[in-house]
Design goal:
The structure is a single chain. This protein has 543 residues and is an alpha/beta fold. It has 3 domains: 248 residues, 3-Layer(aba) Sandwich (Rossmann fold), CATH 3.40.50.620; 152 residues, Glutamyl-tRNA Synthetase, domain 2 (Orthogonal Bundle); 111 residues, Ribosomal Protein L25, Chain P (Beta Barrel). It is 26% helix and 23% strand. It contains 13 helices and 27 strands. The protein has a 7-stranded mixed beta sheet with strand order 12-25-26-27-23-24-13. Strands 21-18-19-20-14-17-22 form a 7-stranded mixed beta sheet, with no helix packed on it. The longest helix is centred in the first third of the chain and has 16 residues.
């Protein structure tokens, strides 16, 4: 597989060759307030790949600085997702491990006259921040005495004040051209228990303050984040430059992953869940890790896709069929082929007089290691309803009255009679077979019109099969109401009949359904055997 360009890798190579660093230390810092999606997979892959290639390691760090939205359950599920992706972190860390360190560094800023406690409201702060063309207004508390700010900050920590009443702000420059640098909030009051520290803290650091200090403590060599934080980098550096730290890590930003037909952001996913537009965070139409796993995507396929897209600073949109190509490419040699009839039409072979027999079929013609399987065959089978036409078009290659087709791995059959109900709906077909035409017999007397798949009526089992189309058409538009963009008909459900061996598969195990595509077992609804479409057999994408 050819990987895309990676400007971060080039930076690391230069740093190591110059002697700036001996190896690369990175971190993957999810917030434990939701599940991971393919955007996180990109960040994860970049961080773990860089540290592995350059003889370093990656920390898993949970940025748990917002107790109102965080949960231990998400910590557990995120760890499971990372392991499923095939990555191993060196140590597990939490932002909450560093609360004392952050509190200490905030006091240093106060003592230097570079931070002050403010009592204006969030709305007042927003109005006073100014615009891109107008400077902001200074708060009346900007020059509060250092001793007073120090005392108020300590009392904020002790829980003496209600939420929203006070904040600690950095004293930078209300006329700075970068609005982010206009006296940003460092700490706010949150009087909710933290899932790890309980009621010990009543103040919590903002991400922009916590992030650089976490990187400092862990001695991160390359702090990698998405492009949305590019304007925050001056603040990242300002906090480090003014907090008396002994080591100054560097932040580098890369473009986010945007995919046609997908809705990725956590906020949008949560909105769809709340609106009932999807089943949950693990809906197979989502590109959350849990959704992709349930759909049958493979970790290697996901990582190969991400590596092929490369790492740049330019935002772009990737086609969904590029992702599907890499999933398909990874599955094609790993999966066994099997037969599944999604829309069954019964066929009675009127001249088949045996009770039944066994036919043997290869599981994957491109991978002999997957072996073969034995399939029951009898005088009653199911074929796809779309594989029969009473009035076939020219050059029709499937079954029609008087025409002969091969049943894959079995015999030629010819349609002799069509049985219908009072309304003209086809109920079943009556066919005859030719015993001399069994697959593997060497018969060459004539050629059938085509080859179709089938399942045995007596031994096949019912299954619910789902096929999916993209949640949205084109690229998600944040200016348009989410509800108006989601395709409510993006799921097709089939009452199928499948080979009986599919019941014994493991959860999420993928198979190639002959002539249909790749499908994976889904045990979310155990009342009936269920398979989700992973990807189609082919696409127009070419790498």
């Amino acid at each position: 597989m050819r990987e895309g360009s990676n400007f971060i890798r080039d930076i690391v190579i230069e740093d190591i060759e110059s002697g700036k660093h001996e190896f690369a230390i990175t971190r993957f810092p999810p917030e434990p307030n939701g599940l991971l999606h393919i955007g996180h997979c990109k960040a994860m892959t970049i961080n773990f790949d860089i540290s592995k290639e350059f003889n370093g390691f990656t920390y898993l760090r949970f940025d748990d600085t917002n107790p109102a939205k965080e949960d231990e359950r998400f910590v557990r599920l995120i760890k499971e997702d990372i392991k499923w992706m095939g990555f191993e972190w060196k140590e597990l860390r939490y932002a909450s491990d560093y609360f004392d360190e952050m509190y200490k560094r905030a006091h240093i800023l106060i003592d230097k006259g570079l931070a002050y406690v403010d009592d204006i409201s969030a709305e007042e702060m927003r109005q006073m921040r100014g615009t891109l063309t107008e400077s902001g207004q200074e708060s009346k508390n900007r020059y509060r005495p250092i001793e007073e700010s120090r005392d108020l900050f300590n009392r904020m920590k002790a829980g003496e004040f209600p939420e929203g009443s006070l904040t600690l702000r950095a004293k930078i420059d209300m006329g700075h051209p970068n609005i982010i640098m206009r006296d940003p909030v460092i700490y706010r009051i949150v009087n909710e228990p933290h899932y790890r520290t309980g009621d010990e803290w009543h103040i919590y650091p903002m991400y922009d303050f916590a992030h650089p200090l976490e990187d400092y403590v862990e001695r991160i060599t390359h702090s990698l984040c998405s492009l949305e934080f590019e304007n925050n980098r001056p603040l990242y550096d300002w906090y480090l430059d003014n907090s008396d730290v002994e080591y100054h890590p560097r932040q580098y930003e890369f473009a986010k992953l945007n995919i046609e037909g997908a809705i990725i952001g956590k906020r949008n996913i949560l909105a769809m869940v709340e609106e009932g537009l999807i089943d949950g965070w693990d809906d197979p139409r989502l590109l959350t890790i849990s959704g992709m796993r349930r759909r049958g995507y493979s970790p290697e396929g996901i990582k190969n896709f991400i590596r092929a897209t490369g790492v740049s600073k330019e935002n772009s949109v990737v086609r969904m069929d590029m992702l599907e190509h890499f999933i398909r490419d990874d599955l094609k040699l790993k999966t066994a082929r099997t037969m599944a009839v999604l829309d069954p039409l019964k066929v009675v072979i009127t001249n088949y007089e045996k009770e039944g027999e066994i036919v043997t079929m290869t599981n994957n013609v491109d991978n002999e290691d997957l072996g073969s399987r034995e399939i029951p065959f009898s005088g009653e089978i199911y074929i796809e309803r779309e594989d029969f036409s009473e009035n076939p078009p020219k050059n029709y290659k499937r079954l029609s009255p008087g025409a002969e087709v091969r049943l894959m791995g079995a015999y030629f059959i010819k349609c002799e009679e069509v049985i219908k109900d009072d309304k003209g709906n086809i109920l079943e077909l009556r066919c005859t077979y030719d015993e001399e035409t069994k697959s593997g017999s060497g018969f060459k007397g004539r050629k059938p019109q085509g080859t179709i798949h089938w399942v045995d009526a007596k031994t096949s089992i019912p299954a619910r099969v789902y096929r999916f189309s993209p949640l949205i058409e084109g690229v998600f538009d944040s200016s348009v109401d989410l509800v108006d963009q989601v395709d409510r008909d993006s799921v097709q459900e089939f009452s199928a009949r499948v080979e009986r061996n599919l019941a014994d598969a493991k959860n999420h195990q993928a198979f190639q359904f002959v002539r249909h595509g790749y499908f994976a077992k889904d045990e979310t609804h155990p009342e009936i055997l269920t398979y989700n479409e992973t990807v189609s057999l082919k696409s127009s994408y070419r790498p």
